[in-house]
Amino acid sequence: MRVRIGVERDTETGEAARSLYTWLSGDPEVLAGAGLSPVRRAEAPGPMGPVLEAVEAVFDSGVQLASLVVAVASWRSTRPRADRVHIERAGIRVTVDGGDPEAVARVLRALGEGGAPEAGRGARDAAPADRPGRQD
Prior knowledge:
By secondary structure, this protein is an alpha+beta fold. Helix content is 32%, strand content 23%. The protein contains 4 helices and 5 strands. The chain has helices at residues 15-25, 28-33, 62-78, 101-110; strands at 2-7, 34-40, 52-59, 85-89, 92-96. Strands 2-3-1-4-5 form a 5-stranded antiparallel beta sheet. A hairpin with a 2-residue loop joins strand 4 and strand 5. Helix 3 (62-78) crosses helix 4 (101-110). The longest helix has 17 residues, at 62-78. The protein starts with a strand and ends in a 26-residue tail after the last helix.
């Protein structure tokens, strides 16, 4: 399973994505089951080297995805302004905007893990984590 994690409204230096990558790389539960890679912007490197735009994670199970979502939520709680983080899997994009168990469960359901997947809707129309049951 492959997911891409991006931070909404990151700076032009990619500071938030770099911070998130560092945080996830330091989490033993995430590293135990996931391979992490920085995703660099296609444009020319900034003054301090390549600019990150996202983090990519590859792993085998929903348990590892759950650990990743919890780690992302924990990272958000350390930020001065709780950055909105998007996790994409197989064309489905959800927003991580809470760290409580219910919010984590909503993200997992929206991504198709942890119970009844919600991937039956159009891939681009997946509801954000705070509104998993969107009605059309």
